[in-house]
Amino acid sequence: MISIASLAAASVLAACGGGGGGQDETHTLRFNHVLAESEPFHQGFLDWASAVEERTDGGLTIEVYPSAQLGVEEDIIEQIQGGANIGQNTDAARLGQYVEELAVVNGPYFVDTLEEVESLSESETLQGHLDALEEQGLKVISFNWVQTHRHFFTNQEVNTPEDLAGLRIRTPGAPIWQESVRALGAEPVAMDFGEVYSGLQQGALDGAELVYANIPGGNLFEVVDHATETNHILLINFEVVSAEWFNSLPEEYQRALVEEADRAGMETSQAMEDQIPEIKEQLEAEGMTINESPDIEAFREAGNAAYEELGLTEVRDQIWQEIGRE
């Protein structure tokens, strides 16, 4: 016979977001991301949270924590693996440390448009790698969150990969990022985003590869004066939760969490794309020169070396075939 004390304990566990059960229980996801509250993604996460709460009549709530308030990304992912009711906005480069093939998503020119991002859900190969990730305790509930294209921002004109030779370019430290920048002609330097301004100002860096929104956000137009639209990586983000926690939810709540994440992600991604012309006008007003027509084909060809170096050419080609990309 189940005691009253046991029932009370189960009720407390459900209120904290743990345990399985029906829709009379309430569940909470504490969602962490590294971006500031002013970033479009933060508002997108709040919209996602609001939609999920409304759709589940308050049965599932999402608490959004910006600026890494819950901790650094790598530590949070470890907690997620352990079953904590925490979520994290992350990227394929970091997830590639658990399932190597997933890093392909952050490779040069892997996809070019938001439509191609949506079509990735049709790839059996990619889904297989996500399943392998789930076996390690990490459940990807959406990868419809795209932070626009990454470009090179330097203090000299760049038109071809050869123009980047010898330039120290900041990029994140994961292998796919490092090899991508190296393949495209530059010398990669792993550095936290918060250190980029001082790195450029003091000459430790010759440039950085970032999305347009990062430049006014970090006042980087004060320390770089050339933008080169290489479009070399369309930055896809992954929303990750504990597989154990996700599977404890009622199926209706699982669907709400996934479907509303996909919807909010694509809406936020499109809004960020729509903001780029305004950002470019602002940067030009600050004196930045924008090269809209570098030799893209030369950069595309150079980017193949990153896949070859990391043994990801075959998985890339298989996914391309499955989504109808030549």
TrEMBL record:
Name of the protein this chain belongs to: C4-dicarboxylate TRAP transporter substrate-binding protein
This protein's record includes keyword Signal: yes
Swiss-Prot/TrEMBL keywords: Signal
UniProt superkingdom: Bacteria
